[in-house]
Amino acid sequence: TKKIGVLALQGAVTEHILSLEKLGARATAVKLPADLDGLDGLIIPGGESTAIGRLIREQHLEEPLRTFFEAGKPIFGTCAGLILCSTDRSHPTGDLRLGFIEMEVERNGFGRQIDSFEALLPFEGIAEPVEAVFIRAPYIQSVGAGVTVLATIDGKIVAAETDQILVTAFHPELTDDLAVLQYFLEKVNQGSTNGRTVH
Ligand code: GLN
């Protein structure tokens, strides 16, 4: 069984852990650098990206997260986690951007009136449309080379990936539909042999 960490500084942490356990994975909360040891993959959850970024710095997790990324471990950023994983520089502020996946992001991109909504979303690589819950969600304005778009809504990109990184603008852990989390677990399972010769 693979062991997945969920960054547990702020936001939708418990829901991710319960959903991962339903899928048969081992899931653990990550609050300190040492909690990253021995993980096969990591989820950076939704919440508030400015707050999570500030807490990452306060807990001295920025460098350990970068080391985890450089080790080739799969990472899944949902909603605020998507913003944190991006290289976005469209709104230059002091906010943390880990730069794990090249994309420009529009924060709160669906407007203030439409605070939250649900959609049945066609998703590349998943046979059935997925139940997607959007809460003050960002969307992806553009992606860099090597980034594949997985889902759009009204022409706005809401899911994308590289070999290593998965991001969704929605919360896959807030419905009973576990297909997107399953999709991430498959990435984790493939990750163990990526780039290596198996004898
Ligand atoms: N609007 C939040 C932000 O900008 C993200 C919302 C979410 O994660 N559900 O960080």
Automatic annotation (TrEMBL):
Family assignment from sequence similarity: Belongs to the glutaminase PdxT/SNO family.
Assigned keywords, A-Z: Glutamine amidotransferase, Hydrolase, Lyase, Pyridoxal phosphate
Example of a GO biological process term: pyridoxine metabolic process
Protein name as it appears in the record: Pyridoxal 5'-phosphate synthase subunit PdxT
Function: Catalyzes the hydrolysis of glutamine to glutamate and ammonia as part of the biosynthesis of pyridoxal 5'-phosphate. The resulting ammonia molecule is channeled to the active site of PdxS.
Catalysed reactions, as listed in the record: aldehydo-D-ribose 5-phosphate + D-glyceraldehyde 3-phosphate + L-glutamine = pyridoxal 5'-phosphate + L-glutamate + phosphate + 3 H2O + H(+); L-glutamine + H2O = L-glutamate + NH4(+)
Pfam families registered for this protein in UniProt: SNO
Gene name, Swiss-Prot/TrEMBL: pdxT
Subunit structure: In the presence of PdxS, forms a dodecamer of heterodimers. Only shows activity in the heterodimer.
Residue positions of the active site: 79 (nucleophile), 171 (charge relay system), 173 (charge relay system)
NCBIfam families reported in the protein's UniProt record: PLP_synth_Pdx2
EC numbers for this chain: 4.3.3.6, 3.5.1.2
Residues binding L-glutamine, per UniProt: 47-49, 107, 135-136
Source organism of the structure: Trichococcus palustris
